[in-house]
Design a protein that fits this description.
Helix content is 34%, strand content 15%. It is an alpha/beta fold and 612 residues long.
Length: 612
């Protein structure tokens, strides 16, 4: 994907680095935070219970995280927050209705979308916008210290800057004192601690898993041992393979391969996709070989030091140690063929009879359960070491399958002719998605039956995010007429209604010129010329090249005349109903709307004007 957001990564680093470096001009020695049990996030908003009248309580004096003494003269009712984590703290304390201004990076709770934005995070906030809101209190972390004197001219400022999990309860207690909401703070802290302890207790007897967390891809950056993320990995039952470093070190591929992580964690803004790991130099890691490469849907769940981190910790723990959060077996599910199938225990030996199923199992973290795949399974590269069971679907070799002694066989509807024979070997689950929502359902179903539900949820979330990203960029733009060439054999074979390619063209902001035909169909040059496509996309396995269109009737269509003839990078991205199909969607969208994606298309075209 081409969604590298340099600003986001700088903000990410600034947010977490700042939490470890509290500056300022404090004249007294910072007081130690009270001893707190391991923190744990809250999931419910608590109402503020006042135990004494406001008049009796205020003015109140507090010492903040920068060791500053601040006096709050009256109950704060108009609050501006300069860090997303502080906004979240107020939500968990039942004080979110006091917030009148937040940064551009606040994304939680859902109601935050209706709150006035005051610009960038911390020191990048817009002072004029803040002043215009007439706040009676400003809450910030240490990333705002460079503009602290200017903020103090607007309203009292309290620095709330947790830089470890144990600092989160301290932040809640401080805010409870500021707002005379001590009871709400105590409840939030108790819930937070209880939830963190529950998660850490669930994984405490599990073997430690070596984890590589990708912060950025070029250069390759990770989280050192003194970071908030490293603490989260440790609590989730893992070991940060770079815990002997500090801050955000740049590391080499060779170092990663030498330390050989068992799990690799990516985030949407790290500049690296799951496919990049499987196809690139990190494919040599145990994580890639076993299918333990995960894309966390929202890194804010992991890096915002508020009770929200419970969600991130829970996700991380379930990805590292799914067996500690076992699904209940026996389990009865309904597959895509409408069959009731009972899975007696967690499958450990799976045979896949479709390449798309194989890819899905790797993406959700169940690749290490595969003992047999078809001859056509070619992704990820680690699949080459798995036993082959013959052709796709009904062409599989039943004897080879039986010899592997599988406890589960997963197939699509192309295996239905041999279903009864497969059932004699092991339970069979049929998955046969016909559209993108069906792909989501397939992933979630396979996650459920393999006890990899959290991995499946992260995959679906990332896919939905990619689809939303594409749709947002093509919305309202003219829809170019598109002709897709799958194969050139006794005509031009193209995709009609009922195919994934047709759906992807529509989602990518185009119009398939043969959407009125069903399935796959061979069409003539005359039909193509009559419908005059503006863009032609060719499968790399079509048996025809763009320059071949320089001769004959197709030279007259707009796509050829304007040089908009492209070769897709990988046919499997658009024909296999698995997690990678959204990469095919994004590639098609880039070809149809290159300006919207800031994409420099390199079409392989002929110069029609010179070739006649």
């Amino acid at each position: 994907m081409k969604k590298t957001a340099v600003l986001l990564i700088l903000v990410f680093l600034g947010a977490v680095v700042a939490s470890g470096c509290i500056g300022g001009n404090a004249t007294t020695t910072p007081s130690r935070s009270p001893s707190l049990s391991t923190p744990s996030p809250t999931k419910t908003t608590t109402s503020v219970q006042q135990t004494q009248s406001q008049k009796a309580y205020y003015p109140v004096t507090v010492k903040d995280f920068a060791n500053r003494t601040v006096t709050i003269k009256a109950e704060p009712k108009r609050v501006v927050t300069l860090a997303p984590s502080i906004t979240e703290d107020l939500y968990y304390l039942g004080l979110f209705n006091r917030v009148v201004g937040v940064t551009n990076y606040d994304d939680f709770p859902p109601g935050v979308s209706n709150v006035t934005r005051i610009g960038g995070y911390g020191k990048y906030a817009n002072l004029e916008k803040i002043a215009a809101l007439k706040p009676d209190l400003i809450l910030a972390d240490s990333y705002s210290l460079p503009i602290l004197p200017k903020l103090e001219k607007i309203a009292p400022v309290v620095i709330v800057d947790p830089h470890s999990l144990s600092d989160i309860p301290r932040a809640l207690i401080l805010l409870g004192k500021v707002f005379n909401a001590q009871d709400a703070a105590k409840k939030a802290v108790d819930e937070f601690n209880a939830e963190i302890n529950a998660i850490s207790s669930a994984v405490k007897n599990e073997p430690r898993v070596k984890v590589f967390y990708v912060v950025w891809n070029k250069p390759l950056m990770t989280a050192g041992g003194d970071t908030f993320i490293s603490d989260m990995i440790n609590l989730a039952g893992g070991t940060n393979i770079f815990n002997d470093t500090k801050g955000w070190p740049t590391v080499s591929v060779e170092q990663v391969l030498k330390r050989d992580p068992q799990v690799i964690i990516l985030t949407p803004h790290c500049g690296m996709t799951t496919e990049d790991v499987y196809k690139g130099p990190l494919s040599g890691t145990t994580a890639a070989r076993d299918g333990k490469v995960y894309m966390i849907e929202n890194e804010s769940d992991l890096i915002h030091p508020s009770p929200r981190v419970v969600k991130g910790l829970e996700i991380l723990a379930k990805l590292l140690h799914p067996d500690a959060f076992k699904a209940k077996y026996p389990m009865t599910i309904t597959d895509f063929a409408g069959r009731k199938v009972t899975i007696e225990k967690e499958p450990e030996r799976i045979v896949s009879l479709a390449p798309s199923i194989t890819e899905t199992l790797f993406y959700i973290g169940a690749g290490d359960k595969l003992v047999g795949v078809t001859n056509y399974a070619d992704f990820p590269p680690a699949v080459k070491n798995i036993t082959r069971v013959g052709g796709y679907g009904k062409y599989a070799n039943l004897e080879k399958i039986a010899a592997l002694k599988p406890d589960l066989i997963i197939a699509d509807d192309f295996s239905l002719p041999i279903l009864s024979k497969l059932e004699e070997i092991a339970p069979v689950v049929i998955v046969a998605p016909k559209n993108l929502s069906g792909v989501y359902r397939q992933i979630e179903l396979l996650g459920k039956i393999t006890n990899r539900e959290e991995g499946a949820l992260t995959v679906v979330a990332e896919m939905r995010a990619t689809v939303a990203y594409v749709e947002s960029l093509v919305r309202g733009k003219p829809k170019p007429k598109v002709f897709f060439i799958l194969s050139y054999y006794n005509g031009y074979w193209t995709a009609g209604n009922g195919t994934f390619i047709n759906d992807l063209i529509n989602l990518a902001g185009g119009k398939n010129i043969f959407s009125d035909v069903e399935g796959w169909k061979a069409v003539s040059e005359e039909q193509i010329v009559a419908r005059n496509p503006e863009v032609i996309i060719i499968s790399p396995n079509a048996g025809i090249k763009p320059e071949d269109l320089c001769k004959g009737p197709l030279t007259s269509v707009n796509a050829v005349k304007n040089g908009r003839v492209y070769v897709l990078s990988d046919e499997n991205l658009v024909v296999r109903p698995g997690p990678r199909i959204v990469l095919g969607l994004e590639e098609i969208a880039e070809l149809l709307h290159p300006k919207a994606f800031n994409y420099n298309a390199q079409p392989l075209t002929c110069n029609v004007s010179s070739t006649g």
